[in-house]
Structures are given as C-alpha cells and as structure tokens.
Amino acid sequence: MRTTLKDIAKEAGCSVTTVSLVLNDKATSIPDATKKKVKKAVKKLNYRPNQLAVGLIKKQTKTIGLIISDVSNNFFGTITKGVEDECNAQGWNLILCNTNDYHKRELEYIHTLDDKGADGIILCFAKEDDYAKVQETVNCLNQLSIPHVMVDRYVSDIEGYFVSVNHVKGGYLAGRYLTEMGHRRIGCITGPENLEDSRNRTKGFLMAMEEASVKMKPGDFYQGNYDIKSGERGARYLMERGVTAIFAYNELMAYGVYYWMNRHGKRIPEDVSVIGYDDVGFSDILHAPLTNIKQPVYQMGRETVKQMIFMIKEKEYRRQKVEFYPELIVRESVKDLNS
C-alpha cells in the first residue's frame, strides 16, 4: 500500500501537521531534530507525494499533454523529444497522445487529458484537418478552458499560440538553390492542399521561380501526402514530364523519390536532382546524401513547452506566433548544370 503522511508521523513520533510542514518547507518553528526524524522516516518508508492530491490543493498538476499526429514519423518524434527534454528540465510531467492523423481521435484525446487534469495541451493538428476541423478542435479547447499551444501546422486565421517555421522562406530557399544550380525544368511533390504549411512552401518556391524567370505550369506540381508512397508516385509522374530536378516538400517523400529512382535504374544526381525538406532523418547516409531544407524541429519542441508553461503560470492566453527560420543544408543530391 502507498505510504501516507499518517504513516510518516507514526514512524517519526510526531503529528501529521508537523510532517506536512516539513515536507512543504514551512517548518520554520520545528526543531531540527524533529525535521531529521521526519526525513529519515520518509526515506525509510519510501514515501512519494500523491501528485493528484497535491494538484487538487494547488490547482496545478504540473502535467502537460502532447497530442502528436504521427509519432512514427521522425519529424514528430523529434518534436516529441524536444518537448520531453524541456518538460524534464523544468520539472513537469508529460502525457503523450498519438492521433495517427485522425481528427476524431484528436478530439477524444483533448477530453481525456482534461479528465486527467492536464494543466495545458500542446497540439499538432492531424493531417486530415481542414479549416473546419481545425476550428472544431480549437473551439473544443476553448470551451474546456484549457491553455494550449499549437506546434508545426500553422493556420493563419485561427486565434491562439503557435510555434512554427516560416515555410515561405523554406520554399524560397529550395527554389533559389535549384535555379542557381542551373535547373529550369523543376517539379514539386507537395503536401496535402488543405495544409497551410504546404501552400506556403509553394508560395515561397514560386517567388524564387519568378526571380529566376522560370515559368511553372500546374502540371509541374504533384500533390503528395507527406509519406514515402506518394513520393514514389510523384517521382514517376514528374520523370514522365522530363524534369531535371524534384523538390519534395518533406523528407519522407524525398525518400520515396530515391526508392523509385533506384528501382528504375535512375541515378541521383546524375539523372535527376532532388532536394528535400525537414532534415530529421537519415539524409546524410543515403548513397547520394540528400540536400535538405532543415527545420529546427527539436528546438521548436523545447520552445513550445516554454510557451506552454508561461501561459499556465501567467494565465495569459493572447494570440502569439513564435516563428523559426529554416536553413539550406547542401549535400550531394543536386547536380550543377552550370558547369
């Protein structure tokens, strides 16, 4: 059975009130000898405070819920690592929930975390979430009065705290590098159209194309699903269009491009150049190390916890966006057509 304050008091030969004062560092008028007896009893009986009871008294459990969309994806695994490390550093507990990109499960987890007394929720929207579903999720959080921070998938028209990356900049960096390397026939494997981060990558990419006077056609874009299979399908489609370079909007789809090229006897970068996005996987150990747009994913996870704890402590729920900037990581997957 769990050791109680009454057990400690009996072992130390003092009152429950005295034990409580010692454990809460409020024993200013209690003799040092008594304090030592209490601490000795605590150690002997392996006492641990009941955090649920403590939370009821202090109205804070020091627990954060993290609702992630796909923990098997290295990108979200890295965010989770950042969140976990910052929680540990600040002495907070973490409950991890994985939606597998299902909106319904997202809503269910919000209620589960609320029932378990989580002080706040960090949320990455499911891949299937369109604007209406995002609004439903946010309305649910607001109705339950749970402090929350959204990470990664930014939605500009939604009120709330966001920690995200400037994907317009990321798309621009990818497009500019490809044109600087002499590529004019470029194809893109995008993410789902309902996701703003994918649309912003396209926006930035097209800015770079305009600067380089490269005209893109609607057929130069293949809509993927941020997974390996859609990367394979996109590679086949774009190679049939005769592109010299492919910009995959995330790392998993870039791996799909590699897989398709390998199965069809195509070499990277000799036959086609590839640039990816994320840089959280194993891009540097591929047979042609993948040039990537790197997102500071781990740092985003840690920053999200800092914002979450600030909101909980200050009870400040205003709209705010913390924006990180991506960077170009040049490796060996893009051929220089200028030489």
- Count of distinct structural domains: 3
Order of helices and strands: HHHHEHEHEHEEHEHEHEHEEHEE
SS class: alpha/beta
What is the count of helical runs? 12
Report on this model:
The protein has 339 residues and is α/β, with parallel strands linked by helices. It has 3 domains: 5-49, no CATH class; 59-165 and 297-325, Rossmann fold, CATH 3.40.50; 167-295, Response regulator (Rossmann fold, 3-Layer(aba) Sandwich). 45% of the residues lie in helices and 16% in strands. The protein is built from 12 helices and 12 strands. The chain has helices at residues 5-12, 16-23, 32-44, 51-58, 74-90, 103-115, 131-143, 167-180, 196-211, 228-240, 251-263, 297-314; strands at residues 63-68, 93-98, 120-123, 148-151, 161-165, 186-190, 221-223, 245-248, 273-278, 291-294, 320-324, 327-329. The protein has a 6-stranded parallel β-sheet with strand order 2-1-3-4-5-11, sandwiched between helices. The chain has a 6-stranded mixed β-sheet with strand order 7-6-8-9-10-12, with helices on both faces. β1, α5 (74-90) and β2 (93-98) form a beta-alpha-beta unit. α6 (103-115) runs parallel beside α7 (131-143), α8 runs parallel beside α9 and α10 (228-240) crosses α11. The chain is elongated. It starts with a helix and ends in a 10-residue tail after the last strand. 43% of the residues are buried. GO terms for molecular function: DNA-binding transcription factor activity; transcription cis-regulatory region binding. Residues 3-58 form the HTH lacI-type domain. It comes from Dorea formicigenerans. This is LacI family transcriptional regulator. Keywords: DNA-binding, Transcription, Transcription regulation.
